[in-house]
Amino acid sequence: MKRRQLLQYGGLGLAGFGLAACQKGNFSLPQLNLGKDKKFGEIEKKNLTIGYVADNTAIPLIIAQEQGFFEQYGLTVKLVRLNNWGEIEQNLRKWQFDAAHSLFSLPLTAQLSSNYAPIISLMMLNLNGSAIALTPKAWKEGIRPYTDFVDFGEFAHSFRKYVRTSDKGIKIATPNPYSLENYLTRYWLGAMGIETKKAVEWVTFPPQQMIYKLQAGIIDGYASSDPWNHQAIQQKAGFIPYTHRDIWQGHPGTILATMSPWVEKHPATARALVASVLEGCQYADNLEKRPEIAPIVAQKNYLNVDPTLLDPFVTGQYPYQNLEEWHKTQSIPDFTLYHYQDTNYLKEPNHANYPWRSHTIWLLTQMVRWQDQGLKSYPKNADSLIDKTYPIKVYEDVAKALNISLPSDRNKVESSNLFVDQRAFDPSQPVAYLNQFAIRANRPQYFS
């Protein structure tokens, strides 16, 4: 693959509609008539700047750059790497980016925040993709990867005992308080009967710094996307008790985010952008291409890592530990699923990039569960809130142009066998789902 040189950063010219970003309210995404050539009309803005955080979930963006998918749709893109998700949000709010690789939760938290911003999701970039790493001290206390236990109950008993041995509880780092890594780790702890606000101290660090905090004894564990978990395995700095895929198979990963006024002003550009990235997602899920992809994305100007950190991405074999000679790998080809693989949780026409409303409903239930963003009850206007922050129209247009079939319903039931605690999720019953959790911020109060 030919490496494409990054373009010189230029002004975005977004100030003309920046004022609209400060005003709450509905927005409309213009309708476009797609031609037989699958073009999206005249591109309103050809030079784009897109931000990303260096982890494996950004690979579709890098592929779109390297394989010329952006160029194919009439776009010239500058990819800008940032250190953390907070910087991504700040640059979106300041109109410094046209779009960005982003946390799944960002559109929702930006909408609910007192510091409102009209951030929306254009598409999903992946499902799964992250894990929990623990210090070797936990290993010495008898904790092992879950694959070494008979069942989740046996693991939970061992882990509760480990937590009780620490007078101060344990300290866990996540990349952001509203990241899926944070919510899924809290879900996992709660399922074991551990009070996540009493027994756990939560801290935030950029993913690439977490291994050093673990080695220094500053934290007892961390949750992040790969390749940063595999780094702990490779350097024998820790081990993986659970991947987040083990906690919820097929959970949402990251998104391609932008500002709603930007889409209103650049409807054809938005669709061309989504088409480019969608082709990058499809390419990333081609297992035969991954040996070629890894050394490219590992380069200094992209992820800036040793290519061997991407071995699980290439082989589909995931190592949970490297602390003892008997370590072994598990076959997890869908550890990070970028578009489609035939799994027990993903069947055609479903695919990873589709913006499921039910995924956002689940996120809302967990925000209410922990009273994040001041949520003490499930919002009455949840559907309209989700439709505004995770709109479907742009993605639908692009999928139809690329002959990608779409699900008939944006809500889907997640069966009990997909969750570590065997608790099914029915998005039509969010309040009943919330009331099932014994461990939550406001118990024994019930939601209505």
Describe the overall structure.
It is a single chain. The chain is of the alpha/beta class and 448 residues long. The protein is built from 18 helices and 14 strands. It has helices at 59-66, 69-72, 85-93, 106-112, 136-140, 152-164, 180-191, 210-215, 228-234, 244-247, 260-265, 267-284, 290-297, 311-315, 357-369, 382-389, 393-401, 430-434; strands spanning 47-53, 76-82, 99-103, 119-124, 127-128, 130-134, 170-174, 200-204, 221-225, 239-243, 254-259, 317-319, 329-331, 336-337. The strands form 4 sheets. The chain has a 5-stranded mixed β-sheet, with helices on both faces. Strands 8-7-9-6-10 form a 5-stranded mixed β-sheet, with helices on both faces. Helix 1 (59-66) packs across helix 12. The longest helix is centred in the middle third of the chain and has 18 residues, at 267-284. It is globular. The N and C termini lie far apart (56 Å). Mean pLDDT is 90; it is low at 1-36.
Helix content: 25-40%
Mean pLDDT: 90
How many beta-strand elements?
A: 14
Residue ranges: pLDDT <50 for 5 or more in a row?
A: 1-36
Sum up the overall morphology in one term. Answer: globular
Cα distance spanning the termini: 56 Å
**Order of strands across the widest beta sheet?**
2-1-3-11-4
* CA radius of gyration: 21 Å
Count of alpha/pi helices: 18
Category from helices, strands and their pairing: alpha/beta
Strand percentage: 5-15%
Characterize the biggest β-sheet: 5 strands, mixed
